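Recall from the previous lesson that a structure prediction takes nothing but the amino acid sequence as input. Here we apply that procedure to Cdc23 domain-containing protein from Triparma columacea. The sequence below is the only information supplied.
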Amino acid sequence: MNDPSALLTTQIELQNAIQTLSQYGLKLSTKWAAEQLYLGEYTRLSNLLSDPKDPEKPAEDLPPLGLWLWAYGKYLGGEKRKEEEIGESQGSLTHQVTNHTLPSIISALSHLSTSPSPPAFPTYALALCLNAQLKACAPTSVRHEKLLEQTRDALVKSILAFKWNWSAWRDLACICVDNACIHSSVESSLSPLSSHYMYMFFLSHVFLEQQQNDQALQVLESLSQQFPNSADLKAQTALAHYNLRDFDRAQEEYVELVEKDPYRLEGMDVFSNILYVKEAKAELSALAQSASNVDKYRPEVCCIIGNYYSLKSHHTLAVSYFQRALKLNRNFLSAWTLMGHEYVEMRKTDKAISAYRRAVDINDRDYRAWYGLGQVYEILNMLLYALYYYRKAAALRPYDARMWCALGSCFVSLDRRQEAIKSYERAVITNDRENLATKKLAKLYREEGDVKKAADCYLRLIDNLGSSVDAGSAEALLFLAQYFKNIHNYENAALMCSRLLEYPGPEKEEAQALLRDIRSRRQAKS
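The prediction returns the following tokens.
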């Protein structure tokens, strides 16, 4: 059967048969039909659809489906060979391994780039290959700029021809996030779809990738009205709340998601992160058990179990599960980052650095890995390196106070106090929930002799903490009492002292002494 059209007809018949047989539960018949298609034999499929005179080209007059099967089969065959070569190569040489089929596929499909209305899926195959070359290209090169334009155009044309290919939308989102310079051109090109729900899904994905979580939630809320039962939308909403560190709301969303789809594993590793942060051992144990019952050989499940053991301080066991996740999928980002965290706990800084570096190699937008690298180098007292990595994390999460606090801490250690003050000020205006930046900033202002700004910080601190008094607020109250006394505001000074009278510490005695001094000053004044 060398006739490409006859081959395609047979393939379509067998594909339809597989679907029907599977629906009726006839597993043996389904397996037989699938075997006739040589499913997974990508190179063989591509060869059958190649030009007999030139194996690097598709057969003449292939319909769009045939052209797609030729290109995608060749691409997947090349990817399979690339993975094999990576497994055989050593260390840093893995970055030099490429898919050798890309140039011939791009050459064969290049005519689609000039066609006004090319077929959707062959054009997507062209975009896949161009995007693979784009990822391997130096970002500052002229070739990168050309490949970026070609990849963008191919993806946009493919989407306009068939708007429901979510893979194409995701690839387009990825290059948009990495290359802000193409945002306006993509928006303009996709204007015919600007009110379509697929475009809204695309927007929510881009917003989440860019850590613009409030904007993502607005889009997701709008989509939820149109797709009220979508598990994917529920998962994305939970992820947005997690990114905003609204762990209670994120947990509620994930609990509802599990109730709706108890067999879902995608994204459940993020749910386990939330339970880990909240130290919910019972809930995390239950999640690990239920996920393991569904499929214990999924990377997500290994990460959930790893988080459970980490919460119990069994760090060696946790690492073993993160390593298992990476054996199942060596590019599973969460596993690399979480393993880095474990190595930090175990004080194995060299292994932590290696794990975090692998994470940023996979996705250089993973702020957790950049932040982790900063922490490791700060532990090693290599502060300039730590500063570099913290800046990377802050650039990705500019509205996360923790990033700016980390920068401030580095600047203090380097005795760059003015830069430290600016970093802590930035942390304060980006929702300093733990009040860490406020405390540090007040201390810096005191050391710099700016008592007015120090007092403002301490006032904000006690306002945030409410009526409770702990070590941090006791220090603030004592400073404010002294500050108000010095500016002759005896009423507020006495108020600050009175809040310390129930606090069991040396601050109580100092407050009592201040109150006596304030009374004598008032009497002298009267």
